[in-house]
């Protein structure tokens, strides 16, 4: 049961990722960053196009728009790749947080076709690092409290050497529910493509899945 449960989750994860693949022509490294207001962070942009015969200029889009309307970060200056040196295939930009929110930074160019589905940078701007740490602590406390709640019934069944009173309809529905919960958490936490779609629908939202949510999936799988 455990192997089947994990296999279904893994298969669905691969299916979602491979069916949304496009060809990248530029690469943001890293592809997602978290900063606080007033903080600067460098991001490397690498040109993946090999046949560079003329300079390629990039201008940046903020949530798909050329104008930096919301002002979550300072506007990023345009950059140009040339074929003079191999180092010019990689350039750094500086991202500076201005106000709390979420932003998808993409680029466009008149010389090459850049896909916003695969060539993008996810930016999460928070108020403070202290608040982020507090959220993590509360999440792990929740994870531990919910995990411990499963043990009393397991211990009782072990002592009685019986599962009398256990409703197998409930168990079946629980497996179905936890499988759906696992697919949601794993895909949203690990797939940058799905995260981009989420923030496109909820530009001012917060990613609802953290590491403790993904960890809890394995705890649930242990008790099934």
From TrEMBL:
Which keywords, in A-to-Z order, does the entry hold? Membrane, Repeat, Signal, Transmembrane, Transmembrane helix, Transport
Give the way it sits in the membrane.
Multi-pass membrane protein
Signal sequence bounds: 1-21
Localization = Endomembrane system
Where does it primarily localize?
Answer: membrane
Catalytic activity annotation: L-cystine(out) + H(+)(out) = L-cystine(in) + H(+)(in)
Tagged with keyword Zinc:
no
Q: Name one GO molecular function term.
A: L-cystine transmembrane transporter activity
Regions that span the bilayer: 130-151
Note whether Chaperone occurs among the keywords. Answer: no
Instruction: Name the family.
Output: Belongs to the cystinosin family.
Q: Under which name does UniProt file this protein?
A: Cystinosin
Q: Which organism is it from?
A: Rotaria sordida
